[in-house]
Amino acid sequence: MEASYRFFANKACKYYPCHEGMEEFNCLFCYCPLYGRERCPGNPEYILKKETGKDGGEYVRKIKSCMNCTFPHDAKNYDVMMQFLENTGEREKEKKQLTVAVLADIHSNHTALEACVELARKKGARKFIFLGDYVSDCAYPQKTMEFLYRLKENYDCMFIRGNREEYMLAYAKSSEKNWKPCSASGSLFYTYENLTKRDLDFFASMENHGTASYPGCPKLTVCHGSIESAKELLFEGEENTRRILSGCKTDYLLSAHTHIQFAWEYQGKYIINPGSVGEPWYYGGRAQFALLHCDGSNWTPELLRVSYDVEQTMREFAESGLNDMAPSWARMSRETIRTGVDKSTPVLNRVTEICAGTYMWPDYPEELWEQAIREVWPEMQEE
Length: 383
Description:
Radius of gyration: 26 Å
């Protein structure tokens, strides 16, 4: 084909042809003018790239890659390219970006929750998704619940039930009330004693998984652990995570419970864990949550970490009486909140081994809890 306004082959270019396997290579659209379009007639690929911002937050940027797309270089596609460039009805309308805040695993840490919500609102979030575990482990659960009720009155909020809410509901129905002040059950007992009927009814009204829908955006599957169990742990790259994602009815799954913040793609589907607000792991114990930004066709996660008044949380452990209700457990919770390091599960496993055949849960002696801590977590700060 001869050079014309519809075709030009720049064979003098040292990169010609930049895509192999085409007989008539059109260089007219050397740099594709449709790169910035949300929708184009080619076959672009998308790459997720993790970046760290100036504020220390981790951002997942979605990059459009046209490395393997030859559409604009095919001579017969000239008219289609021009149709997209001309404003004849095919030019896309700019869509206002929607921002949704996703928060999970608050564990009664109302101070961290307030800091996360404040930052979310500053960044434009007016819709909130909560993935469960609102209470237990920290002091004054009623302050967390009152804050959530106020938020619910003023914003579009979705609430999913976590395993901690399941514990509270099951205990309320149980005829065997065996929680008591001790490290095995004292934190749960303290939390239960500070909840109201309104709180329990609110927990009962929640689903353990669901679908979040926003006009013009892809649907989101939401859960605490997994869509099968609030207690299932979904880690990046694990086999059960792959299985759950493969069976997910949407392309986006929001999951929590692990207290580990990440975004991961598998076979075109994405799992996003916002981390923990109240007992976050890693990153020096900074509170964690996620923002989801929708451009009209895709969700892009922004993973955030927030500094807050940790010492206020420590003071509340003491003044509320929680330290006395669950001595060793509260000590481990405080260490996790201060440092972002958590070994409570292996400590629990160890004290269970020590007590096996001698003591029944929750009657594990405090000195055996301390023994388990010394064995498993010797570097824990002495108080």
